[in-house]
Structures are given as structure tokens and as C-alpha cells.
Design brief:
homodimer, mainly alpha, 434 Repressor (Amino-terminal Domain), 4 helices, 63% helix, globular, DNA-binding
Chain lengths: 71, 71
Amino acid sequence: MNEKDYLKLIGQNITKVRKRKNLTLVQLGDICNIEKSNLIPIEKGRTNVTATTLLKIANALEVDVQDFFKF
Amino acid sequence: MNEKDYLKLIGQNITKVRKRKNLTLVQLGDICNIEKSNLIPIEKGRTNVTATTLLKIANALEVDVQDFFKF
DNA sequence: TAACAGGGTATGTTTTATCATACCATTAGA
DNA sequence: TCTAATGGTATGATAAAACATACCCTGTTA
């Protein structure tokens, strides 16, 4: 898998979980202290997200980081 | 889990898989095009590794990225 | 027709991951 | 003993993530 698609899938997984939890980008951002303007590139797969940012988001969404890597 | 321990565990998982495959840091680095001097901080959990770097390492080690997040 | 909420974009700044190279210590083999 | 391999450290440069703020568009609703 190429890096572009891989980042896109991670982002899509985050979006899926966020919507499943009925959270807006602002709400998620409030919980994990990340601005929505920074969450959007992550969900769109436009940024090469770091491990700790994934941890913050996973904690906020109450899932395992691994869940973002299940394709 | 705090970020420090989390990064350390990711690194330890990478080290475990690398040793299981009987690869040195240089050999792993050759496969995924990452200098051993840059792999060491990752394995030690001293750097906040990015998603694509984890993908490169996972590909080189022939495992899923998820495997690095199993604690 | 406001006003607001939601998703999304743009951008300048700061921080830091990655790259690349050089170097050190220890250990095993010739 | 010398050499090479291995793990590890240090560092300067470059690319880019994260931060923070401001702004735009669309749909909804008072």
C-alpha cells in the first residue's frame, strides 16, 4: 500500500469512529486539545500524523490506536 | 497510558519483531531506507514516530503496523 | 433574513521528525 | 592484536507536524 492511501485510510477510520460517537470536529478537538483546523488534514489523510497525536485522538474517542490501522 | 511509555512500548515492539527476524539495525535500515541512527531513537521511544515511518518499518519487517500497537 | 453550527481552507509561527554524517564503545572473529 | 560488526550518541540541515487564528461556504432554524 502506498503512503498516500495509507494516511487516507487512517483518516477515514478516525472519521468513522468520531461519527459513530456523534462528535463534531470541534467537540473531538475540545476533548483531545487539537484544533479542528488541525484535525481535518488528519482525517483527510493530508498530514503524516504522529504516534502521540493518534494516541490523543484514540483516547478522546475511547478506542485503541490499533483501530485506526484496521483496513 | 502516558505518551512517554506509549512511545517506549511501540519501540520495544519494533525491536522485538526485528530481533525475531534476526535483522540488525543496519539491515533493517537498508530495507526501509532509514539510517540506523534514526531507527535507534524510534526503538528507544525517544522520538514521536510518524505514521509513514511506522509503515516503512512494518513493511520491511513484513508485519502489520497494528502489531506495533499491541501492548 | 439573520444567526449559528458544521465542515473546510489558508497561513504564519514554533516545534520536532527525519535525513545524513561522523563518531564512540563493546564484542566476536581472523 | 587488529578488524569488522553492532549498538549507540551527537549534531547540523531540511522538511513538515502541530499550534493558533482567521476566514469561507452551506444548511438549518429562529
